[in-house]
Design goal:
Elements: H1 15-34, H2 41-58, H3 65-72, H4 81-96, H5 105-116, E1 132-135, E2 138-142, H6 149-162, H7 167-181, H8 188-203, H9 212-218, H10 220-233, H11 237-270, H12 278-285, H13 290-304, E3 307-309, E4 322-324, H14 326-329
Helix pairs in contact: 1-11, 2-4, 2-9, 4-5, 6-7, 7-8, 7-11, 9-11, 10-11, 11-13
């Protein structure tokens, strides 16, 4: 029996963490029980695109889900050359993640090279200089010196390989420690989220297609606040709790989406002939109760990326209509 690594990242197991692990385990059981029946190749690709768009949006990439889909389908979009390259790289990285071992430093570096090629000069290599995290021009985190990176990452990988901690906790803890070390000169955020997925996939393979990045994007300020608070407390506990709650929310959202599929599909069907105003869409669906229409039909369709507003900058415009995205037209 191997001896557990001497390095142990600072954290505590709280009652909240235990409760979340139990709830997630139950949700994962329901998620994985569906197996290939729920994770069709088409759904896997849809979830993959949602993960990519959300993770890049957190890093200020402005491309929408529709535009990300268009890029990967070989169509032109109005985004910058860098944003388009980020999408292509992220797709290559997420497509390859099933073959990676979460405890391999060489494969972590290979993943970073895929993710950042053409975006930085030292893609696939640990940074050689100092790096800090700034918010509004103010330094909020100064990463360890570059010369310590190989040792810190070696300790972290050794801990991950030998820890007896639950994979849900271990993956969240790794995510925090990775962001604290900031081993690369760029791409640390997207790599931390990607590698947590790699760790979860090794535990339960279907979790490779759980778009947890979308939940993080929707709670982006809380994500950064949890990282900052963990830094302040010098332990990862609060970040572990945040990530576990995000995982649970992602699992629940995925299962709820199955329940509303028929309703969302009816919206997609009604919009196939062209854009409609909300009142006309309700009439086409035979609905008269606006709150029900918005909660069960329109909002899920918008959130999923299958439907978009014709005037996205003016949600309450009297001339607002709804139309299918490229993503929705493929449904």
């Amino acid at each position: 029996m191997s001896k557990e690594a001497s390095y142990r990242p600072p954290y505590e197991i709280t009652p909240s963490i235990l409760t979340l692990v139990a709830e997630i385990a139950g949700a994962v059981g329901r998620f994985t029980a569906l197996g290939d029946k729920s994770l069709t190749p088409k759904l896997r690709r849809e979830n993959l695109l949602r993960s990519i768009q959300a993770s890049l949006a957190i890093e200020n990439n402005t491309l929408t889900l529709t535009e990300v889909t268009a890029v990967l389908n070989g169509r032109r979009v109005a985004g910058s050359a860098r944003e388009i390259q980020e999408v292509k790289n992220a797709f290559a990285a997420y497509e390859a993640l099933e073959g990676w071992s979460p405890t391999s430093t060489d494969e972590l570096l290979a993943a970073h090279k895929l993710m950042m090629t053409g975006l930085m000069d030292d893609a696939g290599h640990f940074r050689s200089g100092s790096v800090g995290v700034f918010k509004g021009g103010q330094l909020v985190h100064m990463a360890p010196p570059a010369k310590r990176i190989p040792f810190l990452m070696g300790d972290l990988m050794a801990w991950l390989a030998e820890t007896k901690e639950h994979p849900l906790v271990a993956s969240s803890l790794f995510h925090y420690e990775f962001e604290f070390i900031h081993p690369f000169s760029d791409g640390n955020g997207r790599m931390g989220r990607l590698w947590q997925t790699v760790i979860l996939k090794a535990w339960k393979p279907p979790l490779a297609y759980l778009p947890v990045e979308t939940v993080i994007k929707e709670n982006q300020s809380d994500y950064y606040a949890a990282l900052a608070q963990a830094d302040k407390e010098a332990k990862a506990t609060i970040f572990i709790e945040f990530m576990l709650q995000s995982l649970l929310n992602a699992l629940n959202a995925d299962q709820v989406s199955d329940q509303v599929t028929d309703q969302v599909r009816s919206v997609i069907k009604a919009l196939r002939k062209g854009p409609l105003r909300a009142a006309d869409l309700m009439a086409a669906l035979g609905l008269s109760h606006r709150p029900t229409f918005r909660k069960n039909y329109l909002d899920p369709a918008l959130k999923s990326g299958w439907v978009e507003r014709t005037e996205p900058d003016s949600p309450k415009s009297p001339t607002q209509k709804y139309r299918l995205t490229d993503f929705g037209r493929e449904k």
